[in-house]
Amino acid sequence: MNKNSEQKTGVKRLLKILFWLPVVILIVAVVIGALSGVEKGRKRNLRPTIGEQARDFAFVDLEGNEISLSGFYGEKVVFVNIWATWCPSCREELPTLQRLYEKFRGDDFEVLAVSIDAAGGKAVAPYMKKHRYTFPALLDTAGSVQLLYGTTGVPESFIIDKKGKVAFVEIGPGDWTDPKRQALIRGLMEEPDMETGR
Questions:
Q1: In terms of DSSP H, where are the helices of the chain?
Q2: Crossing angle for the helix pair 121-131 and 88-104, nearest 10 degrees?
Q3: Which of 63, 81, 179, 190 sits a CA distance of 20 to 30 A from 103?
Q4: CB contact at 8 A, 173 and 93
């Protein structure tokens, strides 16, 4: 190969690089933009405050039924508990939550215990069975409820009144057999249903 041919080959390579370089830069920019958009979509909200409208969610329970928080608005006080099977503080709190559930479950009260276990039902179902917990457990394997509710750990609990407003916030484990807490829940349960006025 003579010097002229080598120069022509080098020029061709350079032209190819110059042609494809903007295309590659454009593709990289689009991918980075898409990823940053996903990151923005997964931004953690601030924790809701008392009196604020509860943030709706829907997750499946251990039987595969989709349960939404807003499905109880107007009729029930909802105790939302965000927890995980691997959490020591949750292990401390859950027996008191079971007792609360046994005491108040019925027409005007519901528990939605949202598990953030990545293994989902494989971890939660045997755990619930072992400890004889009967309150409804919902599965959030992606942990999206933590971003939605601005939680900083587990457990965290939110009591939602019949109007769908946040009435109480507990960061960390609570003792749900405490008479003052139970009196708060009972008072919320005694408020009339929004639809029937009962």
A1: 3-41, 88-104, 121-131, 144-149, 179-189
A2: 60
A3: 63
A4: yes
